[in-house]
Every structure is written in C-alpha cells, then in structure tokens.
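WARN retry 2 of 3 for item q-0093 after timeout on previous attempt; input resubmitted unchanged.
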Amino acid sequence: MRFLLDTHVLLWTLASPRRLRKKTRDAISNPDNVIHTSVVSAWEIELKRALEKLDAPADLTTALQTTGLTLLPLRLEHIAGLRDLPNLHRDPFDRILAAQARIEGLILVTSDTVLQRYPVQTMAP
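OK item q-0093 returned
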C-alpha cells in the first residue's frame, strides 16, 4: 500500500509515534508499504516554525532522511489537480496534500475531518 502523511501525522511520526494508533504505526513500519511525505509538509513546518507556531525537529532534513519516508515533490499536475477539488478547506497546504494524494493514488493519513471529505482515500492516524 502507498500512503501520504498529513503534516501533523508526519510530526507525530517523528516526535511522538505513540500518538498514532497501533494500526497506523504498523502500516508505517511495514516494509511492504511506501510511506510518502510531501515537500509541502516540510514547507508548512518551516513556515510555522518561523512564526513560532510550531515545535518541530531542529534539523528537519536530517529527521526526514533517517525515517525512510519517500519524499513526494510538488509537481505542476498536483497544482492543476486543485481545480478538481471542491472548495472545502481554507488551508492551502491541506488542499495540495489532498490533490497530491488523489493524483498519485495515495491513502492520505489524517485526523482532519475536513480533509477526509475530499474525494481521496483516507486513513485515521
């Protein structure tokens, strides 16, 4: 299976994996699964850290490299995919994650109930 972690799920994975359900931790650690994190999440984390709205690993690059997660780049087709999504969420980071999951055929791991309403397969963390 192929998953995309929402930003908060990524942070939990890095700093507090016990916040995740056992089923989710098992899915993330299963070598048969491919677990993606988006560069969009890294961007969101760094922006919110700069605004002092978020506590995150000091060296996000190193933290991500040690996890074995697959980094999903932002491509033009992801941006174009925004026009196919209903206007449910005001957060641009969440909207692009939904578009990426939809276009790439990924299961979006999120506890955000608004994101779960998009036409994309989701899994609660």
